[in-house]
Amino acid sequence: MGLTRWGWVAMLLGTACAGCGSDVVLGPAADRVKITRDPDAVSGCTAVGQVNANAFLRVGSDEYVRKMQNEAVGLGGDAVLLTSGPAVGVAYRCKAAPPAAH
């Protein structure tokens, strides 16, 4: 026997919300990424790329902050200057990169 109309609706809603309860976990060093709206805070830094966590922006959640911090680390950054709303910005490298291992 096939699914009823309400069975299909429940299945579609469950699929659409498959990632709704996911928590973004901070990666290594991501907790040290500073997020700012002050351009002066990154004036001596090097831009390393764009970060966008709009997909993680939910009322009452700070997952978008952790997502931006993780993205910044992935780009080699240690700061994010917010440029558009609370979840879009530019990642910057402000501290000197550690020396390469020999």
Description:
This protein is α+β, with helices and mostly antiparallel strands. The chain has a domain of 70 residues: 2-Layer Sandwich (Translation Initiation Factor IF3), CATH 3.30.110.70. 24% of the residues lie in helices and 22% in strands. Strands 1-3-4-2 form a four-stranded mixed beta sheet, covered by helices on one side. Strand 3 and strand 4 form a beta hairpin.
Question: Spatial order of the strands in the main sheet?
Answer: 1-3-4-2
Report the order of strands and helices. Answer: HEEHEE
Report the strand count.
4
Tally of separate helices? 2
Strand content: 15-25%
- Low-pLDDT stretches are 7-19
Please write the CATH class name of the domain at 24-93: Alpha Beta
And the CATH topology of the domain at 24-93? Translation Initiation Factor IF3
The Rg value, from CA coordinates, equals 19 Å
Helix content: 10-25%
Large-scale geometry? globular
Most strands sheet: 4 strands, mixed
- CATH architecture heading of the domain at 24-93: 2-Layer Sandwich
Give the CA-CA distance, first to last residue: 66 Å
The CATH H-level superfamily of the domain at 24-93 is Hypothetical protein apc22750. Chain B
Q: What class do helices, strands and sheet pairing give?
A: alpha+beta
The average pLDDT score comes to 81
SSE layout and pairings?
Blueprint: H1 5-16, E1 34-36, E2 46-52, H2 63-74, E3 79-84, E4 88-93
Parallel strand pairs: 1-3
Antiparallel strand pairs: 2-4, 3-4
